[in-house]
Every structure is written in C-alpha cells, then in structure tokens.
Amino acid sequence: MEAGDVADSLLSGACVLFTLAMFSTGLSDLRHMQMTRSVDSVQFLPFLTTDVNNLSWLSYGVLKGDGTLIVVNTVGAVLQTLYVLVYLHYCPQKHTVLLQTATLLGVLLLGYGYFWLLVPDPAAQLQQLGLFCSVFTISMYLSPLADLAKVIQTKSTKRLSFSLTIATLLTSASWSLYGFRLKDPYIMVPNLPGIITSFIRLWLFWKYRPEQDRNYRLLQT
Question: Where does the signal sequence lie (predicted)?
C-alpha cells in the first residue's frame, strides 16, 4: 500500500472516530432524560437538525459512493433519531416537538423529491445536493453564535460544553482535511466554520475560567 493510501485510510478513520465521538456527547443528555424522566435543560432542535443533516450527507455519500460518509452518517442518523424519540417520550409539550419534526422532515422529503425526480443528471444531483448539505452544515455551525454572545455578556461558560468543543474541533479539522484530499469543496468548506467557532469557544473557556465564573456569580448575589 502506498503512503498516500495509508494517509487516506488514517484520515478516513480519524473522521469516523472523531465524528462518532462528537455524536456520542448526546448520550449524557439521553441518560439525564432517562434518570429524571424529564427534558429539563435539554435542547431539542440540535438533535433534530443534526439528524436531518446526517440524512442529507448520507444521501450525498450514497450518490458519491463514499464509504466514510455512509458509515458516519448512518450511525449519526440512528443516534440522533434515538435522541429525538427519547426527547419526544419525556417532553410534556409534544405538539410543538412534533410540529418542528414534521416541518424539517417535510423539507427533507421535498428536497429528496426535487433531487431524485427533477434533476435526472447524476452529476447535477451531486453538485446541487453537495451545495444543499454545505449550506445546512454551515448554518448549524454558525447557529450557536448567539450562545457565544450570551457567554460574553454573562462572563460565564456554564452553557458551553468543553468536551463537545474539543470533539467539534477535531471533527471539523479532520473533515476539512478529508475534503481537501478528495478535492471536494462541499466537504471541506462547510467544516471550516466549525474550526473557527471551536477556537472561539476555547478562547472563551480561557478568558472566563471556572474560578472567574464562580467569582462573578458571587458578585451577582
């Protein structure tokens, strides 16, 4: 096996490992919901949007014939669907959750219908589906910026997860390199914001250290 093939295999393995580690951070929320039999302090939309994102990238991986994309997003879709179902089970306001789920799934089905029925050319399908997945992933990575602004305002990082930040950084970096190796901008470009926002979070953890967070809360009381 040539050196380039070994590097590609290692990079592919890193993408799978880091991404699954990032997805598994939701297991703590799953345990919390099962132990408390409630959804207090657990956000639903990240589960749902990540699930839709996984299903979109799974379609792209199948169309492209990329085993790494297929494996990662199949496992990711299964995990996120599990999180969604458990949240739905313990959520007291099921109507809102079901409405959000139906809306995003409807958008996903409409997208599938468009790509598979109205765009018969496989090359055009791959290009347009890649663009859709890229835009969706970028919006997911940029959506927490409001939380980051809140962290700066409160001078507290208690709403941030350090382990998720590290997992997101490693995942985004590995996928950016993977996309670069494949010369696939639809994989490389949307992961760059994940790297940037992860470094911003790490800077916030450094700026607002836990002891400073405690002192700030004491001053507030």
Answer: none
